[in-house]
């Protein structure tokens, strides 16, 4: 039996008898090919703590009478991420809408860069697009620490978004539709965080999740909470994707 934490497009803890790649394909395409949507999920080392009903999973996540494996058994669909210690998270899978999965492994958190600002897409449990002068590690701490800001979440998954030269109207490449509306507003948000040291973050859009795609991921995916060091799952560069994960990259429209 496997346990999976889905963080996009929904937050849930799911027990399954399917291994990760098969689970991703099932969740993306369904058994009757009636739905096609990308999904992002972690494999979770299960049976920790008392918040989730592990015995329920053992009793109900069993093969069907005909021998077919149990595809999904939902254990939680609310306040799930915050109740999973980061140390229990294993590989992160990015599954395209046609069911191809790319496994990301934990890496070393990037150091602070000499950058004017970052653009972050929050993925779970909330979905704003945010511009910030904080590095990814500092942003994870800021968003989950009530001592640093009034509005927080107990835990967060987010990605840094690829940036383009907003001063030109030239081609942006394969980064999806992240910048195709109201670029003046984005400029204003950037200007505000650069000018106001006491305001290190600014919401660009309150919900931008419908425009998220794997194309816009820059360095990788970050996970943080209030009590543990944040995690980083680096995204392979285009050369690695082309040479080692070509089918997935083509499916994700990165090549």
Helix content: 10-25%
End-to-end Cα distance, whole Å, is 35 Å
Question: Strand count, sense and closure of the main sheet?
Answer: 6 strands, antiparallel
Q: Which descriptor suits the 3D outline?
A: globular
Give helix and strand order, one letter per element, not per position. EEHEHEEEEEHEHEEEHH
How many whole angstroms does the radius of gyration measure? 19 Å
How would you write the strand order of the largest sheet? 4-2-1-3-5-6
Number of helices, where a helix is a run of at least 4 consecutive DSSP H or I residues: 6
Total number of strands: 12
Counting structural domains, the number is: 2
The fraction of residues assigned to DSSP E strands is 25-35%
Overall residue-averaged pLDDT value: 90
* Uncertain segments: 167-176
Global structural class: alpha+beta
Can you offer a commentary on this structure?
It is built from 6 helices and 12 strands. With 255 residues, it is an alpha+beta fold. It is 20% helix and 27% strand. The chain has 2 domains: 103 residues, no CATH class; 115 residues, no CATH class. The longest helix is centred in the C-terminal third of the chain and has 13 residues. The strands form 2 sheets. It has a 6-stranded antiparallel beta sheet, with helices on both faces. Strands 10-8-7-9-11-12 form a 6-stranded antiparallel beta sheet, sandwiched between helices.
What is the fold's blueprint, element by element?
Elements: E1 2-8, E2 12-16, H1 20-29, E3 39-44, H2 54-60, E4 73-76, E5 89-95, E6 101-104, E7 118-124, E8 129-132, H3 136-144, E9 155-161, H4 183-195, E10 201-205, E11 217-225, E12 231-234, H5 238-244, H6 246-251
Antiparallel strand pairs: 1-2, 1-3, 2-4, 3-5, 5-6, 7-8, 7-9, 8-10, 9-11, 11-12
């Amino acid at each position: 039996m496997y346990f999976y934490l889905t963080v996009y497009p929904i937050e849930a803890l799911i027990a399954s008898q399917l291994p990760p790649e098969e689970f991703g394909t099932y969740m993306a395409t369904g058994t009757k090919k009636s739905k096609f949507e990308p999904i992002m999920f972690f494999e979770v080392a299960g049976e920790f703590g008392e918040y989730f009903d592990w015995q329920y999973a053992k009793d109900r996540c069993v093969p069907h009478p005909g021998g077919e494996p149990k595809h999904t058994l939902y254990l939680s669909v609310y306040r799930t991420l915050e109740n999973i210690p980061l140390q229990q998270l294993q590989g992160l899978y990015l599954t395209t809408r046609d069911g191809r999965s790319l496994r990301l492994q934990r890496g070393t958190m990037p150091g602070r860069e000499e950058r004017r600002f970052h653009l972050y897409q929050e993925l779970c449990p909330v979905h704003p697009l945010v511009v910030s002068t904080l590095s990814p590690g500092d942003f994870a701490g800021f968003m989950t620490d009530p001592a640093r800001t009034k509005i927080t979440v107990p835990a967060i998954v987010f990605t840094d978004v690829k940036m383009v030269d907003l001063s030109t109207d030239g081609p942006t490449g394969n980064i999806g539709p992240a910048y195709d509306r109201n670029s003046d507003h984005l400029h204003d948000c950037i200007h505000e965080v650069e000018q106001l040291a006491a305001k290190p973050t600014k919401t660009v859009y309150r919900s931008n999740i419908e425009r998220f795609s794997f194309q816009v991921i820059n360095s990788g995916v970050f996970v943080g909470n209030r009590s543990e060091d944040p995690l980083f799952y680096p995204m392979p560069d285009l050369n690695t994707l082309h040479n080692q994960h070509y089918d997935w990259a083509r499916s994700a429209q990165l090549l």
